[in-house]
Amino acid sequence: MPSTRPQLRVAVVVGSTREGRFAPVVTQWLKGRLSQRDDMTTDVVDLAETPLPTVFPAFGRPPAPGTEEALALVSPRLAAADAFVFVTPEYNHSFPASLKNAIDWHNEQWHAKPVAFVSYGGLSGGLRAVEQLRVVMAELNATTIRNTVSFHNAYGQFGADGAVDDPQVDAAAKALMDQLAWWAHALRDARTTSPYAA
């Protein structure tokens, strides 16, 4: 029996802005998985397509010209989301500066919402980036999902059509999305009943 609850709005935040990046391949795979669910809609927030300034205004001062226009392409979409999936590589045992910049430009948009991670890289599969992101998002009152999808030696895992032929990846993706849905519903219901107070 189909659910009568409103669909969850999931913002997929693509963290890499590097030229020649592998992120679009991973993101396309993720979009395909999310599209198979009838309880979620997806909005891809690609930081390479919506770049944000890297210079912050002084406390209490207005932002520099052009900043509000750049934020307008990202901030409302994060605010509207019920949940997030960060697609991130690992750079020097951490996550990209572009992703940290986008996180730091926002605050309330993350509050009392779940964040899941799909990472990729070499031997570590981006897991060190994910562990650091968990600490950052906890500071912003977000709830991180325990399960992840991690692509080790990512270039060799995707076929020419962008597909991944690995039952373990399928199982990991289902577990991640099921946990994300549970937390997203629970936290959305809670925010509706009582606005979150940081």
From TrEMBL:
Family annotation (PANTHER family): CHROMATE REDUCTASE, NAD(P)H-DEPENDENT FMN REDUCTASE LOT6
Organism for this UniProt entry: Streptomyces brevispora
Record lineage: Bacteria, Bacillati, Actinomycetota, Actinomycetes, Kitasatosporales
Cross-referenced SUPFAM superfamilies: Flavoproteins (SSF52218)
Name of protein: NAD(P)H-dependent oxidoreductase
Taxonomy, superkingdom: Bacteria
Domain NADPH-dependent FMN reductase-like: 9-155
